Amino acid sequence: MKGRTNYGVGAMKIGIIGGGSIGLLFGGYLAEQHEVTLYTRTEHQANEINKNGVTIDQQNTSKTYRVQAFTSTSSVIEEDIVIFAVKQYILEEVLSKTLDLDKVHTVCFLQNGMGHMDIIEKLRNPTILIGVVEHGALKVSENQVIHTGVGRTKIAAIKGENKAFDVKLNEFIFEYHDNWYEIVTSKLIANAVINPLTALYGVKNGRLLENTYFHNQMKALFNEITSVIPSNHEKMWELVKNICKNTAQNKSSMLRDIEEGRRTEIDAILGYVLAEAVKKNMEVAITKFLYDSIKGFEN
């Protein structure tokens, strides 16, 4: 049984599944006002977090937060909300192994892409939220993360109501939206343009704007993807460029995955675009080239 701590009026018990960069980032910031438990894959990481807390470094500041941790085989029955901060391609397996998830009122998913939506929609929890994370984060140890890019997290309800997750933090902003499909497709398009190109070229995000030839391919890929995934074309192009500009010195998660020999989320991102193109009988040669190229790196 977890011990109670007095976190004040309105404090929630929040469980976060996944001890990667985003799990640590959310775990630390949310622990400012709420009782946070991180559920990690290894006992070693859980022990490190219980012993030393979660440290978030940002520019010239460093702050450590008190967070408790258990391995992911522990029950989540006591949580008010459970946030899934694991890679999309292991989500189904993680869901099947999360004990007592059906007894939790609110679940929230932070995965990239849209390949997992059918899995989420089958869940019976009263409130199901989707989150789009616009922060940059780099995990440097089992309990330490660098907040490399400050953004915001957009939250929308697939089922139930947004107010189930009412969090207000000045340095870690949450935005609440009515249309979940709009915020998810916007992130999907941005990821689909930036991640594969930076991974293939081996460059930081800003180079897609600075290099004329990379920029040409960026625009061609954007045009192809938005022909398949409906969006406000002009507004979306500005958003993609702004993300590149604001994260100019960052390496995309896909580039880092390739460099470190990990599996990427290409199936959830460009794989979804390819599947939609097939449904609409559309030719997407650039998307297929990039998908095959990244899959080639994975192998």
Automatic annotation (TrEMBL):
<keyword id="KW-0472">Membrane</keyword>
<keyword id="KW-0560">Oxidoreductase</keyword>
<dbReference type="GO" id="GO:0015940">
    <property type="term" value="P:pantothenate biosynthetic process"/>
</dbReference>
<keyword id="KW-0812">Transmembrane</keyword>
<keyword id="KW-0521">NADP</keyword>
<dbReference type="Pfam" id="PF02558">
    <property type="entry name" value="ApbA"/>
</dbReference>
<dbReference type="GO" id="GO:0008677">
    <property type="term" value="F:2-dehydropantoate 2-reductase activity"/>
</dbReference>
<feature type="domain" description="Ketopantoate reductase N-terminal">
    <location>
        <begin position="14"/>
        <end position="159"/>
    </location>
</feature>
<dbReference type="InterPro" id="IPR050838">
    <property type="entry name" value="Ketopantoate_reductase"/>
</dbReference>
<protein>
    <recommendedName>
        <fullName>2-dehydropantoate 2-reductase</fullName>
        <ecNumber>1.1.1.169</ecNumber>
    </recommendedName>
</protein>
<dbReference type="InterPro" id="IPR013332">
    <property type="entry name" value="KPR_N"/>
</dbReference>
<dbReference type="InterPro" id="IPR036291">
    <property type="entry name" value="NAD(P)-bd_dom_sf"/>
</dbReference>
<dbReference type="Pfam" id="PF08546">
    <property type="entry name" value="ApbA_C"/>
</dbReference>
<keyword id="KW-1133">Transmembrane helix</keyword>
<dbReference type="InterPro" id="IPR008927">
    <property type="entry name" value="6-PGluconate_DH-like_C_sf"/>
</dbReference>
<comment type="similarity">
    <text>Belongs to the ketopantoate reductase family.</text>
</comment>
<feature type="domain" description="Ketopantoate reductase C-terminal">
    <location>
        <begin position="182"/>
        <end position="297"/>
    </location>
</feature>
<dbReference type="InterPro" id="IPR003710">
    <property type="entry name" value="ApbA"/>
</dbReference>
<comment type="pathway">
    <text>Cofactor biosynthesis; (R)-pantothenate biosynthesis; (R)-pantoate from 3-methyl-2-oxobutanoate: step 2/2.</text>
</comment>
<dbReference type="InterPro" id="IPR013752">
    <property type="entry name" value="KPA_reductase"/>
</dbReference>
<keyword id="KW-0566">Pantothenate biosynthesis</keyword>
<feature type="transmembrane region" description="Helical">
    <location>
        <begin position="12"/>
        <end position="31"/>
    </location>
</feature>
<dbReference type="InterPro" id="IPR013328">
    <property type="entry name" value="6PGD_dom2"/>
</dbReference>
<comment type="function">
    <text>Catalyzes the NADPH-dependent reduction of ketopantoate into pantoic acid.</text>
</comment>
<dbReference type="GO" id="GO:0050661">
    <property type="term" value="F:NADP binding"/>
</dbReference>
<dbReference type="GO" id="GO:0005737">
    <property type="term" value="C:cytoplasm"/>
</dbReference>
